[in-house]
Specification:
alpha/beta
Length: about 280
């Protein structure tokens, strides 16, 4: 009986200790939660005595990207605590404003912590990549979903469509095709229109023509901006091979891929003007 009571007492002490730890964690979490508004976050980053609050404010500003965030984060690169300097550097990379590059470069030159310096370099690289990618761009195209609405090859044909549109759209003058968040943030900062391009293989039909097997592909792309449909691009193409290809799965797959690629090329032949009209 005494043994049972002892075990019960130990269990109560364990539960009580767990409750205290939980309460402390909740209190600490509440203390270092992001500021409720950008102005408060800027103040916290500049002057709060708790480095955890300053670091949390830096991450918040990077994600919320309010006015004045860049200057506040650049100033925080000289914070006394390495965690805050790391957070500020990471937040500048998330913010995506290439105008922060001089501040990052200067801070990196003075930085003594290897880990902080590594984060600064990572953000520098990301910002330079974004700035270089949009150089000369008239429109930035973000690729959305690539679907296969046919009964052939399942998701594989959607992958083929995605590869084809990346290759073909990237060759259109003035278009920058990307899925990189840093590039899109830089485009927004430079007021370059960003559109979403979603594609679908609408049809892929087998046929015969003068002793050849044929595949005709039809594709459609929707052009949207700010979640509003702005235009449609459609294309079709036919590929050919000899009837002997019917016994070779690899040749048939290549034939289907060629048809999809040709249809994408057809859809994008006037993409420069079509997409330009969509962003007006």
């Amino acid at each position: 009986m005494a043994s049972s009571l002892a075990r019960f007492a130990r269990r109560l002490r364990s539960i009580a200790a767990g409750a205290i730890v939980t309460m402390l964690l909740v209190t600490a979490t509440a203390r270092i939660s992001p500021a409720a508004d950008p102005a408060a976050a800027v103040r916290d980053l500049a002057s709060d005595p708790d480095f955890r609050v300053r670091a949390t404010a830096a991450f918040y500003l990077g994600k919320a990207h309010p006015g004045g965030a860049r200057d506040a984060l650049v100033r925080a690169l000289s914070d006394v605590h390495p965690s805050v300097r790391t957070a500020a550097a990471a937040a500048l990379g998330t913010l995506g404003d290439a105008a922060a590059l001089p501040g990052l470069e200067k801070a990196k030159g003075k930085e003594t912590s290897a880990s902080v310096k590594a984060q600064m370099q990572s953000s520098i690289d990301a910002l330079k990549k974004g700035a270089a990618a949009v150089q000369g761009a008239r429109v930035v195209v973000r690729l959305g979903s690539m679907r296969n609405n046919t009964t052939l090859r399942g998701d594989a044909l959607g992958v083929v469509l995605g590869v084809a549109v990346r290759t073909r759209a990237a060759a259109v003058p003035g278009l920058v095709v990307t899925e990189d968040e840093a590039v899109m943030r830089e485009a927004v900062l430079r007021k370059i229109p960003v559109v979403m391009l979603d594609g679908t293989v609408m049809g892929l039909t087998e046929g015969r023509d003068k002793g050849n097997v044929t595949y005709r592909a039809q594709v459609e792309f929707t052009v949207s901006r700010d979640q509003s449909l702005r235009g449609l691009l459609r294309g079709a193409a036919t590929s050919y091979d000899s009837l002997k290809a019917l016994g070779d799965h690899a040749r048939i797959a290549a034939l289907q891929n060629d048809a999809v690629d040709g249809a994408v090329q057809s859809a994008l032949k006037d993409a420069d003007t079509g997409i330009a009209r969509a962003v007006k």
